[in-house]
Amino acid sequence: MIEISELIKFEKDSSIPLYVQLFERLKELISGGTLVHDVKLPSIRHLSKELGVNRVTVVTAFKELENSGYVYTKPGSGTFVSNSYLVSAKNHHLQNNLVLDEVYTQEYAYLINNGQVSLTESSINFASATPTPDLFPVDDFKVVLNEVLERDKGNAFGYQDSQGYYPIRESICRVLGKAMVTCNPNDIQIISGAQQGIDIISKALLRQGDYIITESPTYAGAIAVFKSRGAQIADIELCEDGMSLNVLEYTIKKYKPRLLYTIPSFQNPTGYSCSNHKREQLLKLADKYDLYIIEDDYVSDLDFQDRKYLPLKSMDKSDRVIFIKSYSKIFMPGLRLGFMIVPTGILGNVIEAKHATDISTSGLIQRAFDLYIRKGFWDKHSQFMYNIYKERYIKTTNALDKHLPSGVIYKKPGGGLNIWLTLPPGFQVNTLVNICASKDIVFAPGKIFYSSNASQKLNSIRLSFASVYVENIDHGIETLCKTIGLMEQKNESYRNLPIL
Amino acid sequence: MIEISELIKFEKDSSIPLYVQLFERLKELISGGTLVHDVKLPSIRHLSKELGVNRVTVVTAFKELENSGYVYTKPGSGTFVSNSYLVSAKNHHLQNNLVLDEVYTQEYAYLINNGQVSLTESSINFASATPTPDLFPVDDFKVVLNEVLERDKGNAFGYQDSQGYYPIRESICRVLGKAMVTCNPNDIQIISGAQQGIDIISKALLRQGDYIITESPTYAGAIAVFKSRGAQIADIELCEDGMSLNVLEYTIKKYKPRLLYTIPSFQNPTGYSCSNHKREQLLKLADKYDLYIIEDDYVSDLDFQDRKYLPLKSMDKSDRVIFIKSYSKIFMPGLRLGFMIVPTGILGNVIEAKHATDISTSGLIQRAFDLYIRKGFWDKHSQFMYNIYKERYIKTTNALDKHLPSGVIYKKPGGGLNIWLTLPPGFQVNTLVNICASKDIVFAPGKIFYSSNASQKLNSIRLSFASVYVENIDHGIETLCKTIGLMEQKNESYRNLPIL
Question: Is the pTM of this model over 0.90?
Fold first, then answer.
C-alpha cells in the first residue's frame, strides 16, 4: 500500500505557503480519483511527521479541504474523502457553467446526461443566454452586503413583507423612470426571478383548463409553468414584427383566454420584436376582450441598433399589463431577484399567491440590491454589461453574415441575446447538435421552445452569445456554419439521387 | 416659510460626529412629518453655509439619508424627501416584527389593517412562531458569507443546480444522521423554505380536483397552497395523540387521496404530537393505499420533555414519506432556505417542479449556509436556540398552570413553539382578540388554521412563545387569562338569566 505522504512533494523555496501546496496536492489526488470516497486520510500527527512540516500546516490544509467539500471529519475518528462529491463535482462544475440556464428542461438534460451533448471546459457555449461569472460585480456586491449587515443586523433576516422590502420597491420605480415606465412602489411585487413571477401570476389568474395565449416559439420555462397549472396553451406563430393581429383576435374569440404571455422586445428564443404599431393594437385587443397581458421584459434594455421599442406597460392606459423583469441577464442569475408591476385589480391575489409560494424573497438579498442601486452601482454595471453584450452581438452577427450558408434564414434582431436560425425544411437538427458537440460547440435546438410537437418546427436552432468570449465567436460560428453547409451538401446529393 | 436650517441645532461639544447629528435630525423631521414627501431639501452649499458646517458634513448626511431610503436625488435638480416611504415606514417596521409570520393570511391582515388588532412597539407578541431578530447569529453568518465570496467569487451567483448545491446536500445528510434520518445527497432537494416545499410537492403530485388529507386544524400556509392548486381538502380532526386511524382509513377509502399532509411532532397550531404507535400505523396505511405522506418537520428538534418521537422518515421502509424541513424557526426565517428528502419515484417530477417554480434557490445563501454547517456554527447555534426556547416554554406553561381559568382546556405539548387553548363553547374569540390587543397582547385566533368554516371550531386560540421575552411572559399570560375569566363571568351571568 502506498503512503499518501509519498505522493506529496513540497517546493520549499516557493512563495506559495506550504498549507496551500498541501491543499492543492490533496485536491488533485481526490479529483484524479487516487483517493476515493470514504478513504480515511492519515492523521494530522502522522502526516506532519512524514512530510516534515508543522502540524498547523496540515490542520489548515485539511480545514480548507473540508470547507471546499472535498473531505469531511467524523469527530473522534478522523478525516475522510467526501462521499461521491468529487465523482460528480467535475460534471457539476461544468453543468453550472454550461447548461444550467433557463432553457434547462428534462428533454435538454436528457441530451446531456446521455452524452449526446458532451461538455468540456473548452466548449464554446452558444446554449446559455446568461452572463459568465467573471462578469459579475462581486466586489461591489460584497461592499453592499456588508454594509447592510452592519446597518440592519438581524432585521435583514426576519420574515419580510410578502410584497417586498419597501425601499427596494422605491429604488426600482426610480430606475424604471429612465425606461419610461412610471409606477408607484405600491404596484411593485418583488419576486425571486422572472420564473417565479410567471408562476405566481399563473397561480393568481389561471385555473385548470383555462386558456392562455403564447407566442410560438417561446420561453420554455413559461410553457412549463402553464402546463403545470393545467392550462391549455393556444400558441400563435411569431412573425418578425410580432404575432399576426388577425390570428390573435380570431384566437381570442375562439378560446376566450384569461391571459396572454408575450416577450415583446428581442424575444427569447427568436430575437424578434413586436412593432410599436402592433403593441398599440395588442393593448386595444386586451381592453376589448378583457384580457391580462404578461409582458416579460427579458432584455429590452439591450437595444443595440436604436430600435426604440416602447414597453407595453408604458402605454398601458387601462391597467391590463403585468410587467415582469428579471435581473438574471444584466446582473447575476444566481441572486434570484426580480420584480413585477401588477395591475391594481389583481394585486391582492398576487400578494396572496406570493405568500403561498415562498412567503417572501430573501430579505438580505433585497436589502443589498436596494443599496446597490442607491449607491449608483447599478447604473454603472448595466452600462458595462450593455457594452460587453453589444460587442458580442456585433461580432456574432458579423460572423454570421460572413459564414452562413445560403439555405439558412436569419433576421438581425437589433438587440437582446439570442439569434434564431431557421434551417432548410427537413434538416436534421439533432445530428447537427451532435456533430457540433463533438467539435466543442453547443447551442439549443429550437424544438425545446415549442409547446406542441409539430414536425415543421424542428428545423431551427437558438444561438445565444451572452456567454461566449469575443475571441471565440468567429471560430464557433464558422465551425457551425461549415457543418451546416456540409450536411446540406450531403442532403442535396441525396435529394439529387435519381428516382429508381 | 421656515428655513430647514432653523430647525437644526448641533451639539458642538458632543462626541457624535456632526454628520450623524445632521442625519439624525433630518430623519426626525421626515419621520415626524415636518418634511413631507417630494419636498426638496436645501442645496448642499446653502445648508452648509446656514449651519456653519463643512460641505462634506452635509454631503455625508445626505448620502446616509439616501442609503436609508429617506431621500432620493434627481441628478441636476437636487435632493428630495422620498415619496411615501416614511408614511408607511413605521407601520412597515412594526409589521415586520409583529405580524409577518407564516400565519399571515388575508383574513389576519384584514384584522390588522382595520385596526381590530393594534400594534405598538410594546406589544407582547404571542402571534409569531418565529425567533426575534436579536437571536439571529448575524456575526457568524457574516463570516461565512465573506469567506464564500472570497472563495467562489462569481460562481456563487451563476445559475445553480435546480436540485441544490451539492456540498450543502452533503452537509445536510451529515446533520440529519444525528436525528436518525439516513439519506443520500441525491435524495435531497434544496428549497427556499418549507412553504416552497409544500408548493413544489403540490405541483408535482396534485391536479385540480385531487383529494389531499390534512389534519384539522393545520398550518394555514399549507391550506393556502392546496386550495390554490384546486385540490379538495379532506380534513381530519387532530386528537392529542394524532388523527384517529379509523377515521383516517375511512377517509382514504372514501376519497382516494394522492397525498397526506401532516406535522407529526409538536404540530402547528396545536402543539399535539402523533404517538409513535400511530406513526407506524400511518406508514402501513400509506403503503396499503398507495399514498405519499408529506412530513412537515416543523420543530421536532425542540423536544423539551424527552418525548422521543421518531420522524416518519426514519421508519419509512417503502419510500412513501416526503420529509420537509425549514430553517426558519431555528435559524433565520428571512434567509428562505430549507430542504426536502424526496422518494426516488417522484424525484424527477420534483426537480422539474422546482425548476418551473424559481429555477433554483439563491446560490450565495446555499453556499454560505453550507459553510456555516461545516464550520460547526450550526451545531452551536441550534443548541443555543434550544435553550432559549426551552426557557420560554417552561415559563409559558408555568404561567398557564398558575393563571388559566377552569373552563379552558389545554394540553402541555412537551416541545415546539405553540400552545393551543380551547375556550368554552360559544366563547367570543374575536372580542377576546380585541380586548387583549387594547392591552398590547396579540395572538392568533384559532379559526385561521381551519380549511372549512364550522362554528364549533371558533373557540380556540394559538399562543406562540417564540418571540416573547421571558420577562414579559408571565404578565402577558396573566392578562390574557384574566380577560378570559372576566368574559366568562359575564357570559355565565347571561346564561344564568331566567328564561322569560
Answer: no
